[in-house]
Amino acid sequence: MSSPMATDSTKFLLSDLVSSHIKYVPSKYIRPESDRPDQFNVEKSNAAIPVIDLQGLAGANRPQVVEEIGLACQNDGFFQVKNHGIPMDVIEGMLHVAKEFFHLPESERLKSYSDDPKKTTRLSTSFNVKTEKVSNWRDYLRLHCYPLENFADEWPSNPVYFRQVVGEYCKNVRELALKLLEAISESLGLERDYMVKALGKQAQHMAINYYPPCPQPELTYGLPGHKDPNAITILLQDGVSGLQVLRNGKWVAVDPVPATLVINIGDMIQILSNDRFKSVLHRVVVNNTSERISVPTFYCPSPNALIKRAEAVVDEEHPSIYRSFTYAEYYEKFWNQGLQSASCLDMFKLT
Ligand code: OGA
Ligand code: NI
To answer: Measured in angstroms, how far is the CA atom of residue 315 from the centroid of ligand 1?
Structure first.
């Protein structure tokens, strides 16, 4: 199918619905009362999410930094990093071009539209419009980014420098992902290259999330509570808050800190570590004044990588928890079951 034509009554994208200045959230976005962003259950301070300075990873302090990363993966599943090595102009360029893309005319954006999760480049809305019952207050552009030369030609060519700017960001994020995977391997007592090898040829996907302002943010989510299925996620957010992480039964806001990136452990590292490290529930709330842009990079195994716990983390006290599977099998379950707090992890447990 060529790109769809939208009429006033059927908008493919949320951003085009919102640009007509709606005052109420349409019914398909309204969550049941038992499943709304409950403000009373939100911890205001973000002190709970550790900030780790990666400067020391290259020098004599490496063991301490590796230990900090290991503790964060074990206790929080989330941490923030500073001195991560990605230049500020690369970060600012990425956020700038993301905003420009979502501000393009509807007809221009719709050239990238698809509701097929199997497509390697696509603009869509909510999460999986084919399977979900309630919609989420989000549009997103999803891109495959590694190897870059296999995919960049499919990416949008408007704005004209989109491919160059996003490509530069992707290369930098990959470097950071590899550094983190080395530190994570070491913190589990494994060879430095253990995780990278376990992920096979590796894949890198990116979402550019666009959350428009919402007239009734208490009724809906940008993204409901979910766990990421991949190995690790590296999140760049603009200056607007929205991300919350579940910690001890409370949602903790991870407010943006300039020049800092948010890292979280995905389901694959939880499984490879045999539950030593945690893939943690997180969600996105929206607000009625500001649009928000976030750019998560999902660093993944290749589809045919056989995922199983590292032998060295298993002993009599810590028997194997999950069966082995290919990442393709896991990923398909993730997209089909929809975002929900019962993550796919349970489906892969040994009985
Ligand atoms: C995601 C996600 C967080 C955010 O896309 O999986 O958790 O702040 N995004 O947009
Ligand atoms: Ni996520």
So the answer is: 35
